[in-house]
Amino acid sequence: MNTENRYPVTASLFMLKEMKRRQEQVRRGYQLLKGKAEALRLRGRLSASELAATQGILGHTLKEAYISLAAIKFTNGESNALILENVGQAQIRVQRIPENIAGVATVSLQPVEEMNANDTLRYAGLGSGGHRTAEAKKAFREALRILIKFASLRNTCILLDEAIKSTLRKVNGIEKVIMPKLRNTETYILMEMDEREREEFHRLKMVKAKKMRSQAIANISRSGGGESNDEVRIRRSMPATHIRATECLTSILYSCHSLTSSSDSAGDFKPICYPHNWDDDDLLF
Predict the structure, then answer these.
(1) Smallest Cα–Cα separation from 152: which of 63, 41, 51?
(2) Do residues 259 and 169 both lie within one domain?
(3) What is the pLDDT along the chain (285 residues), one digit of tens a residue?
(4) Same structural domain for residues 155 and 235?
(5) What's the rounded Cα separation, in Å, for the pair 208 and 4?
(6) Integer angstrom CA distances of residue 251 from 181, 227, 257, 283
(7) Over the range 88-115, which residues count as b (16 or more CB within 10 Å of their CB) and which as e?
(8) Sign of the dihedral through C-alpha 52, 57, 63, 66
């Protein structure tokens, strides 16, 4: 398995449990981030729709306010210098209210009207066109409130858009990088542990076969070719495949033992059982 697609860990039971625990934690975090992204998307859609409606209302209100201002200029003449000279304490202030939207800190702007502030222009236009001056003041006051609301919604939409992009990057990183790496690491550990188990099983079979072969050779050399009661009992307890292999090995060893004392007339030794005639089931391992 490619090491770039998994974490560099040792194949052990402890690391297997650790990988499973990490996968559970990553899966839980993935679900939380996905839920957060959905909540931010929902709130972002609501804020965007409200922002579009507020923008339309703001355009209409500003148009009406500037029409009222044009009417005042037509009635009373140019009054910008008079207004600028009498600017005093602000009658409308902006209050910042912190909000938390699915873990994203935002600020909501709310207009607050100062009731104790002195209106230095409350008698402006009293001689002529006073009602138009009052209408213009009211229109611009309403436009200011809508403008503050528009700024608050626009700021919220910008923050939510950045938070949604950041959350989606985290979700995609977990889904496309971290979770596949954890799964590949778990698969690698399982494969290595299975391979070690097979190697250990094969080693135990080889050791067992070697012990049985040594025991059979010792029994043959001790009895001179005959079988004792212990050998009969061992033969009965052995599997059929091991019995065939032991008989073949016994015949070869017995023939080699008898070859030292006598041989046939031609002087050629022919064993009873050849290794190339063994079946796969006759192998001790």
Answers:
(1) 51
(2) no
(3) 556 688 888 888 888 899 999 999 999 999 999 999 999 999 999 999 999 999 889 888 888 888 888 877 777 666 665 665 566 677 788 888 888 888 888 888 888 877 665 555 555 555 555 677 778 788 888 898 999 999 999 999 999 999 999 999 999 999 999 999 999 999 989 998 888 888 888 888 888 888 888 888 888 777 755 555 555 555 555 555 555 555 555 555 555 545 444 444 444 544 444 444 545 444 444
(4) no
(5) 41
(6) 57, 13, 10, 15
(7) eeebeeeeeeeeebbebebeebebeeee
(8) negative
Q: What is the pTM of this model?
A: 0.60
CB 146 within 8 A of CB 56: no
239 is a domain residue: yes
Q: Which of 204, 205, 206, 228 is nearest to 216 (CA)?
A: 228
Is the Cβ–Cβ distance between 26 and 174 less than 8 Å? yes
User: Is 74 in the same domain as 162?
Assistant: yes
Q: Are residues 127 and 50 in the same domain?
A: yes
DSSP type of residue 175: I
